Amino acid sequence: MFNRQFIASHTQMVYDSVARLRRLAGLSLAEFQRDADNYAIAEHHLRRALQALLDLGRHVVVKSKWGNPANYREVFELLERGGVLDNEFRLRVQGIAGYRNRLVHDYALVSEKEMWEILQERLDDLETLLQRLLAYVTKVGH
Question: pLDDT tens per residue, the chain (142 residues)?
């Protein structure tokens, strides 16, 4: 049912990107802003981690036959209906996933301070989302 190679490669992408983001999260705001490369690296790895998580979520939804989501918001709604996410967590991660679109389409509007705050406050949500997706895949098997 699930494509194990797809899941493994996307899981590794999330782990690698979050590890890189955690290193940047250890910087103070002043240190983060001192080097423009810090923002560029954070933007790249946040976008990459979010895209991999969204792709994994869509894979779980489609392969579980819960529907064919037309957008990422629907991916999260279907993951909640399928019991992978509870409502409170769905709302929280659905919001952070919206950053994927901002980083792709409205990248000029995301400030260095805003990016740094995401690194401080939201990385655990990315890891928790990955853990919940993997727990479901492991439980269901196939």
Answer: 899 999 999 999 999 999 999 999 999 999 999 999 999 999 999 999 999 999 999 999 999 999 999 988 899 999 999 999 999 999 989 877 776 666 665 555 668 898 999 999 999 999 999 999 999 999 997 5
Residue 51 CB neighbours (<10 A): 19
CB 21 within 8 A of CB 46: yes
Q: Which fold has domain 4-140?
A: Four Helix Bundle (Hemerythrin (Met), subunit A) (1.20.120)
SS3 43: helix
CA 99 to chain centre: 9
> Please, which residues have CB within 8 angstroms of residue 49's CB and are 6 or more apart in sequence?
13, 14, 17, 18, 21, 126
CA 21 to chain centre: 12
| HSE-up of residue 109 (Cα within 13 Å, Cβ side) | 8
Yes or no: say if 52 and 100 are a contact pair by the CB < 8 Å rule.
no
Break the chain into its structural domains and give their ranges: 4-140
